[in-house]
Design brief:
This protein is mainly alpha-helical. It has 5 helices and no strands. It is found in: Mitochondrion inner membrane. Belongs to the peptidase M76 family. It is a peripheral membrane protein. It comes from Teratosphaeria nubilosa.
Length: about 100
């Protein structure tokens, strides 16, 4: 749902890795995919501090890495996610807060 919202609201270029990274950060953060219990029970990932951020970052890097423009390069995917992290992780539109 977040991907559809971002495409309609922001007119993203699907070939731009920065746009893709921001879209994936927002989707993982706002969809509930990275809730603590979901990570713990279904993925065996757990952590007390920064768990949400680590999950969102991990999922965004994997998604960007899978795009043809990235060519499967882990370093490039992580760099692009890091470049847009601050502006995209704080953007909860159209919601007031992160779903927990």
């Amino acid at each position: 749902m977040m991907h559809a919202y971002d495409h309609l609201r922001f007119k993203l270029d699907p070939l731009d890795l920065r746009h893709a990274a921001c879209m994936e950060i927002r989707a993982s953060m706002l969809s509930g995919e990275c809730r603590f219990m979901r990570e713990l029970v279904t993925r065996g990932q757990w952590g007390v501090t920064q768990q949400l951020q680590e999950c969102v970052r991990r999922r965004a890097v994997l998604s960007v890495k899978a795009r043809p423009a990235c060519g499967g390069d882990d370093v490039k995917a992580a760099r692009v996610v890091n470049e847009v992290w601050d502006s995209c992780f704080g953007d909860t539109r159209p919601f007031d807060e992160i779903y927990r």
